[in-house]
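re: that chain from earlier
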Amino acid sequence: MPKQHDLQIVDNSGNDVCLLDNNGINIVSEDNLKLGGKIVDYRRSVDIQFGATIVAGPVCIVDDRYVIESIRWVHADAYDAGSSLVVGVASPGVTAANSTAQHSSAINLAFTVNTPQTATITTQTTMNAGDRVCVKNVVNAANGAANGSVLSIVLKRVP
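^ sequence. v structure.
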């Protein structure tokens, strides 16, 4: 039997934005909803599946204030030793190549096939609407097959 809720807020797509149980405790929140004057925690996942090659450049433009919370990578085909990439943040007017790296070491494209890697976030640049998340410093990526490669970036909204 479904749990009863005192308050349910649904977005235009029919997704639950906020559920408050009978005690007023927030169960789910996924929008720019404010409780007690603070934005309710919100995360957004950006998943990029690459075609035949990996090219440096922007992968998304943010619509609000975010930080990168996590970066994960997995590939289905091996790359040459030394193949790598870096994820950065760029404000308007800054190229992907000059974006600010968000993790401590490059993602190893020669890592074990079909084994997810998690980058260690060392810089959490606060992005504003219009800033971009970029792939930069792609090294030797032409020496492998990007088909089946996925870069997953979790953005966390910040007030």
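The chain has a mean pLDDT of 79.
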